[in-house]
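Teaching assistant here, posting this on the class forum so everyone can see the example we discussed in section. The complex has three components, and the goal was to see what a joint structure prediction looks like when all of them are supplied at once.
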Amino acid sequence: MPELPDVEHYGNYIKRTAARKKITGAETRNAKVLEGVSGKVLAKKLKGKKFSRITRRGKYLLLKFAEEEWLYMHFGMTGDVAYFKKDKEAPKYARVLFLFANGYALAFISQRMLGRIGTAPSPGEFIKKRSLGPDALDVSPGKFKKTLEGRKGALKSALMDQEKIAGIGNIYADEILYASRLHPKTSLSELKDGDIKKIFRSMKRILEKAAEKKADPEKFPRSWLIPQRKKGGKCPRCGNPLRTVKVNGRTSYFCPKSQKRKK
DNA sequence: CTAGATGTTAAGGT
DNA sequence: CACCTTAACATCTA
């Protein structure tokens, strides 16, 4: 479930497991997830290095392993990381294993193989190349307002546009809209300043709380939409069945009672 | 068996 | 340029 809170959690996990361990190599089991680098070159680059710094921008995790050398990870629609003892069997769908001198390995897991791994000279260069917007947890209220103001299209599409704000996907966009009591098809042009403030505050609160709960929906407040975000789900506020509508080509869940369309 | 699932990108169009 | 839609990617599950 890799949106911002999930990736934040993976980064924290690596910080307390694989970080600062001496790397002895990398085992690529599915080269499909590699971008711009071969398994052989990746292993050679990493050998003898350590992941010395870990940072995140939106849904991308960036790991420093040398001067001007960073590894980036993106998880696509499904993904995880797992640190395990190498004499044990690797987790299912482990596509790349980073091997350490202590006998452990870090698995990059990608069931649907939509995840990607590559290298970049620095987070700054990487962000520029991908045109990533500010991280959703970092963006200031002023910048947020400017990003949404005077534009066309659906609010939800803008929230999910990684070049505008990085980190929000379909699931958390629904949660933010639910908290803001806005219909998923609300367009940017009908938003008032008060709405933008409300959306901003909901966004920060939700992403922070979700990251704190390690992106585990079972630990989310029961007032949230996500645990009910499934067929037959009910609105935690009023108990009525949630409805769905397509926005941006993706399914949106919402409460028809509290998220009415203004226009 | 079929449709849809947390994402991104390309290609085409308005 | 800004924005929209559709398809594709590979795999699993309802």
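For the discussion questions: The first helix of chain A runs from residue 4 to 15. The mean pLDDT of chain A is 96. Think about how each of these relates to the inputs above.
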